[in-house]
């Protein structure tokens, strides 16, 4: 697979198309802004991810799609029909996954603040409860054990290891260092294994890691798998699975496009790391679980907006659009880059700042971008919004949550 990942957007005769349909045709009679998703692109990435795992010799791979990236019901239903499981971090996400028909025995529950009600609900899903709780503290394990005892059942749990690695990503989405709130240190896990009172109604079935999001290089991933393998080999309990989390990135910028690890490169690195650090040292062969999010849905979606007006302030040119940071918070929160594309191209370009209607200076989608001179009512598209667009949206400034359309 090439590093340049497929997109549903394409220009034909200077006109922008989405999934083979003219954007202005799609937008006709639709209120802007709105999110627009391509089912073909979604299917492409899930199929490529799962097939690449098998092709690279991953043992019995289970793909648990991370709902936090995009929890649209049609997205979930499509992934369910393709065999996907789910990674959830709240009872709300769990209920959405179940409503989409995803088997509880393909669902892992992550997150540092699982409540009693959430744990109880997860234990009562289906006949056996969920596939596993990814436990992030000893206190959480104690709570799960206690609730399972009251329900006269047994809970399947996996320790989430904090492998103490620094992932090269934005500091707000790095999760694998000891200063982060996520996971347990190796020594704490080993100590908990000897506390009999924690295991009266729990079964340790796996170990997991997740070191961050928008990962574009794999050194930290390989190091985390090494630490995961070392811990697994120390445990006397035979494990059903080892969970490598998610986080594989997509290309938002030309720089990322040039250095981005492809899905195949990622799968080979995972396979080689487990062979080197785990399988070569034991006859035990647990399955590998993945929790991809952005890599599955990021490229399938865009945010469609219209120009409200333009404004000149001395040497500054502003293109004011009707989409705001409440619709896509990544640029304001992470200083993230997203391409802004006009529905019609032109050879005559100007430099302009693309800004939204929110009463915050940070409500800006790009500064000094080269775009045609746009007029009120013209359509623009903010690209790569399939992940962490709608799921992070808000009603700030009492604005409505934008509608999602699935092509």
Structural class, please? alpha/beta
Spatial separation of the terminal alpha carbons: 24 Å
Q: What's the number of extended β-strand segments?
A: 19
Radius of gyration computed on alpha carbons: 23 Å
CATH topology of the largest domain: TIM Barrel
User: What is the name of the CATH architecture of the largest domain?
Assistant: Alpha-Beta Barrel
CATH top level label of the largest domain:
Alpha Beta
Number of helices: 12
Summarize the main sheet.
8 strands, mixed
Approximately how much beta-strand content do the residues carry? 15-25%
The CATH H-level homologous superfamily of the largest domain: Alanine racemase
Number of domains: 2
Description:
It is an enzyme of class 4 (lyase). Pathway: Amino-acid biosynthesis; L-lysine biosynthesis via DAP pathway; L-lysine from DL-2,6-diaminopimelate: step 1/1. Residues 60-297 form the Orn/DAP/Arg decarboxylase 2 N-terminal domain. By secondary structure, the chain is α/β, with parallel strands linked by helices. 28% of the residues lie in helices and 24% in strands. The chain folds into two domains: 9-37 and 300-406, Lyase, Ornithine Decarboxylase, Chain A, domain 1; 39-298, TIM Barrel, CATH 3.20.20. It has helices at residues 23-27, 39-55, 73-81, 91-99, 116-123, 138-150, 186-193, 219-234, 254-259, 263-277, 294-297, 330-334, and strands at 9-12, 15-18, 21-22, 34-37, 62-66, 85-88, 107-109, 132-135, 155-160, 202-208, 241-243, 287-290, 301-313, 316-321, 340-342, 349-355, 364-372, 379-382, 403-406. The strands form three sheets. Strands 4, 13, 14, 15, 16, 17, 18 and 19 form an eight-stranded mixed sheet that branches.
